[in-house]
Amino acid sequence: MNSKEIRNLSAEEIKAKVADTREELMKLRFQQVTGQLTDTSRLRTLRRDIARMETILAETQKAAK
């Protein structure tokens, strides 16, 4: 997800996406531990997406104050 798409979402939608992405990341970590994960680059992508969403969420909350 790129930053333009994230900025078009509301704060609640961003929080929901962060929660979903964290859950997906957890599942992929379990797959990695058990040796079932083939695409390890997905872990890095998800971590960066989470950071991007949290950064934009913090910016919008700061701007709202």
Task: Set down the secondary structure blueprint.
Blueprint (H helix, E strand, L loop, with lengths): L2 H5 L3 H24 L6 H24 L1
Helix pairs in contact: 2-3
Task: Give an overview in words.
The chain is mostly helical. The protein has 3 helices and no strands. The longest helix is centred in the middle third of the chain and has 24 residues, at 11-34. The mean pLDDT is 96.
Q: Give me the CATH architecture, please.
A: Orthogonal Bundle
Helical segment count: 3
Radius of gyration: 14 Å
| Number of self-contained structural domains | 1
Helix content: over 70%
Any low-confidence stretches, pLDDT <50, length ≥5? none
Q: Approximately what portion of the residues adopt beta-strand conformation?
A: under 5%
Shape: elongated
Helix/strand order, N-terminal first? HHH
Kindly state the mean pLDDT as a whole number?
96
Q: What is the CATH level 1 assignment?
A: Mainly Alpha
Distance between the termini: 26 Å
CATH topology description: Helix Hairpins
Largest sheet: none
> Given the helix and strand composition, which structural class is it?
mainly alpha
User: How many DSSP-defined strands?
Assistant: 0
